[in-house]
Write a structure and sequence with these properties.
single chain; 243 residues; alpha/beta; 4-stranded antiparallel β-sheet; 38% helix; binds adenosine-5'-diphosphate; nucleotide-binding; transport; ATP hydrolysis activity
């Protein structure tokens, strides 16, 4: 039984020059606990696919059609209220740049507790304790709760973003180039950490990257996109040995 099942998804952009198709007829399913990688060159439609799944992309003129079934419910037919719950409780997203996701003038601790307080019936005391626990889950010390984003290294900031993504225990985490902005050593650390977290909590990951070799390590299956189309989808070993 799939956690997420995408059927014949197309996404068009309406621009002054007409309609351009960014995602063309993509079908893909993700099982519980599975990591599916989506690879492909810049501009091939990977981010558009990710945005369409979480409906975050409210860019004027974005038109998705097809089906995105999450546990059988079509994300494309959800009401704003349902989407809001879906966006945090079921699915969360980690982007390439932590600076785009973190608020520069709010401490890490407050950003974590804000997410918990906004979406859970939980006391401030429990939210604070949970925030510290989440930081330790991503390998950071609780002292860091008082830090502002600029006081952390890039790798730590990305860990915080992952901690925030985990806060509501989603079943699916979408990661769009989550380690691309980091140096290779830090990238490796974060990927190992992610691997452990996945083993421990059993969530599914949709992992988007232009880096096929990196994906061969983390993904169970890999899809390759080209010009909006999913041109290949298979077991990561098969795709990897078939360039
Ligand atoms: P990737 O993530 O693989 O780099 P994107 O999904 O960002 O690719 O882009 C896919 C295509 O959609 C590209 O041709 C891009 O120019 C186009 N595109 C992306 N965002 C918009 C937008 N807001 N309006 C019009 N076209 C867009
Ligand atoms: P236990 O406390 O029974 O050892 P776990 O090791 O499973 O529990 O979880 C430790 C913490 O991680 C708990 O606060 C739990 O709420 C949290 N947690 C559980 N599942 C997830 C998840 N999918 N993502 C993030 N945190 C989670």
């Amino acid at each position: 039984e799939a956690l997420l099942e995408i059927n014949n998804l197309c996404v068009d952009y309406v621009s002054p020059n007409g309609i351009a198709r960014a995602v063309n007829n993509v079908s893909l399913s993700i099982a519980p606990g599975e990591t599916v990688g989506i690879a492909g060159e810049s501009g091939c439609g990977k981010s558009t696919l990710a945005f369409a799944i979480t409906r975050l992309h409210k860019a004027p003129g974005l038109i998705p059609h097809g089906e995105i079934l999450y546990q059988g419910r079509d994300v494309l037919k959800m009401s704003p209220k349902e989407l809001r719950d879906f966006r945090w409780n079921d699915v969360s997203i980690v982007f390439q740049s932590a600076m785009n996701s973190l608020n520069p003038v709010i401490t890490i601790g407050e950003q974590l507790t804000d997410v918990l307080l906004a979406h859970k019936k939980i006391s401030i005391k429990d939210a604070t304790a949970k925030a510290a626990e989440l930081l330790s889950i991503v390998g950071m010390h609780g002292d860091r709760l008082k830090s502002f984003p600029h006081q952390l290294s890039g790798g730590m900031r990305q860990r915080v973003v992952i901690a925030i993504a985990l806060a509501l225990e989603p079943k699916l985490i979408i990661m769009d180039e989550p380690t691309t902005a980091l140096d290779v050593v830090v990238e490796r650390e974060i990927l190992n950490e992610l691997y452990d977290l996945k083993e421990r909590f059993g969530f599914s990951i949709l992992f988007i990257s232009h880096d096929l070799s990196l994906m061969g390590e983390i993904a169970d299956r890999i899809g390759v996109m080209y010009a909006g189309n999913l041109i290949e989808l298979g077991d990561s070993k098969t795709v990897f040995n078939n360039p």
